[in-house]
Amino acid sequence: MRTLLGYTAIVTALLVPLVFADTQSDTARTPPSTLSPQWAKLWPSVVARSAASRSAPSPAPNDLQGWATQQQTLEKNMAPLVGPALSAYQVKMTEETLAGVPVLVLEPKGWRDDGRLLIYVHGGGFVSLSARSTLFSSALMANRTGMKVISVDYTLAPHARWQQITDQTIGVYKAVLAQGYRPESIGMWGDSAGGSIVAGSVLKLRDAGVPMPGALVLWAPWADVTGTGDTYVTLAAADPLLSMTQLKPAADAYADPADQKNPYVSPVYGDYSKGFPATLIQGGTREIFLSNCVREYQALAAADIPVVLDLYEGMPHVFQPMGPGSPEGGLAMRKVKAFWSEHLRVRAAN
User: Fold this and answer.
1) Three-class secondary structure of residue 11 per DSSP
2) Is 350 part of any domain?
């Protein structure tokens, strides 16, 4: 536990400056009174560290060099998290290539192959972070669930656009199927932009006639990149991390505005009557993406897809890895583990 608490401090110090925030009101700086004591202590660090990055302007959507430079800086800043993540969560990491896409394969301590597998697509606004710099999330999932995780290191926007990024995700999934994994034993999971990529990719593979995975977990998915949704307005001053001022250039780097209501880009616009995996959506009440969570839930529920909307009081965007030892983070991960256990089929014993 001491190691994990120390790692939580490292995550808070290094992760938070990388989120998209350019304004912070007094409301955003003031922690909700309903936080657990652990998160009440974390909140000032979340606000202070995110404020440090507010003044940096985003590159133009087509500025390849500008985005590449920003990504290089972020990866350098995140590098100190890699070793501690693997150590704190006792995860073995190997590098592989599937369908021409680099991936990281993570095996938790004592892992036993029961036929189940998780595929992770990281967040970062489509334009930043990597499989390596998001080990604080993927290693956490491997540790808490006891399952192998394949983290997809897709090509970032604008160096690739949504068509190629979703194809890369589908390519990794197909490669896993070719290895002998059964669709009903595979879970796909993504956070923020990664949640959008996961949901859009599954709609795309479904429409292509590819068997769908057994279940999805979406952490605060960026399910509508057009910025449509009530909480983009009502929580704009309360969200300590996210702002459309910096999110919009990233969205435009991922997809031209004319394409942004394509269901493979913004999955809230998908037709779920044709089928979709059971889905768990988790989010917090202090993030402008709350409407994304609710609208994606409604789209699935309206089509009678098994879906759970699991919201956490006062939590900011993708809170789970920032406070993994907190009551909020602990409960969220227990819900995730139970969801995988309910919906992913274990291989029958010989």
Assistant:
1) helix
2) no
